[in-house]
Design goal:
With 253 residues, this protein is mainly beta. It has 1 helix and 17 strands. The radius of gyration is 20 Å and the shape is globular.
C-alpha cells in the first residue's frame, strides 16, 4: 500500500496482495488522511484478496463518508453512506467482501473541508463474526425493522446482514436516547449471499440501541445477526450503593 500526499482531489493507494498492510486496522501510521470533499482509492489486483476491512475515524469531529466497491467498469456491487457523530469515540469499522478480483475500494469524504477523516483499508487482519453472532440470526422482512437494546457493560457490537442471493438494502442506526442517532449506515449490496455485510459498532455508555431497517420491498427479506463483541466486566466493580448521593433538599438537618 502506498500512502499518497494529503491533498484534495483524487488519490490512489494500490495493494497487490494480501500482505499489503502489516498493522492492525485503525493504526495511525498506515491511515491516510482524506480531506473534506476529496476521494481516495485502494486497489487490490490479486484474486486471493477476498475480504478487506475499512476503518474510518476522526479526532472527535463528525464523520460523513461514501464508501463504494468498484468491480470492473461502471460496476458498483456494494456501496454505503456512513455518518458518525464522533469519529473518535465511535470509529467506523466494516468488512467488505471482494471476491473475484481485481477490486477497488473508494472512500469519499463528503463532509466539509474542516472535517478530515483518517481512513485505513487492510486485507491481512480482517474481523469475522463470532459463532454467537452467527447463531443469533433472524429474518427481517422488506419494510420491517428490528431493535436490539444492549446493557451498559457491552462496549461493542457485531452486526451481520445477508440475504439468500437477492439484493440487500438496509439502514443500521445506533441510538443513545430517543431519536438520538450516534451512527447511521445506509447500505446497498447487489447480492447479499455473495457479499454479506459485517461491521463492528462501538457502544460506549448506557442506553445503546441498534435499529436495523430493511429498506427493500417486501419481496426482499434479509437475515440479521446482532451480538455483543466486547464486554467490559470491570464496569460497576467499584460502585457503592448510595455513595455520594443526597436525596431531597434538607441537607444538614
Amino acid at each position: 500500500m502506498m500512502q499518497m500526499m494529503q491533498m484534495q482531489g483524487l488519490g490512489t493507494a494500490t495493494a497487490t496482495g494480501v500482505g499489503a498492510s502489516t498493522t492492525t486496522p485503525g493504526a495511525v501510521d498506515t491511515a491516510i488522511l482524506v480531506q473534506g470533499g476529496s476521494l481516495r482509492t485502494w486497489s487490490y489486483r490479486s484474486p486471493s484478496v477476498e475480504q478487506v476491512q475499512v476503518v474510518l475515524s476522526t479526532e472527535g469531529r463528525p464523520l460523513d463518508a461514501d464508501i463504494e466497491l468498484w468491480h470492473g467498469p461502471d460496476n458498483t456491487p456494494c456501496k454505503m453512506r456512513v455518518y458518525v457523530e464522533n469519529g473518535q469515540t465511535r470509529p467506523f469499522s466494516a468488512v467488505i467482501e471482494t471476491p473475484r478480483g481485481p477490486n477497488t475500494v473508494a472512500i469519499r469524504n463528503i463532509g466539509q473541508i474542516e472535517f478530515p477523516i483518517a481512513a485505513n483499508v487492510v486485507a491481512d487482519a480482517v474481523d469475522n463474526p463470532s459463532p454467537d453472532c452467527m447463531a443469533s440470526s433472524m429474518t427481517i422482512q422488506g419494510g420491517a425493522l428490528r431493535t436490539f437494546p444492549f446493557d451498559p457493560t457491552v462496549d461493542s457490537v457485531q452486526v451481520l446482514l445477508k440475504t439468500d442471493g437477492r439484493p440487500l438494502n438496509a439502514r443500521i442506526e445506533l441510538l443513545q436516547g430517543p431519536n438520538n442517532n450516534k451512527q447511521v449506515i445506509e447500505l446497498y449490496t447487489e447480492d447479499g449471499a455473495d457479499r454479506p455485510f459485517f461491521c463492528l459498532l462501538e457502544t460506549p455508555g448506557s442506553g445503546n440501541v441498534i435499529r436495523i431497517v430493511n429498506t427493500a420491498p417486501i419481496e426482499f427479506p434479509m437475515t440479521a445477526a446482532v451480538a455483543p463483541h466486547m464486554i467490559n466486566t470491570d464496569m460497576g466493580s467499584g460502585a457503592v450503593l448510595g455513595g455520594d448521593v443526597v436525596i431531597g433538599g434538607d441537607v444538614g438537618w
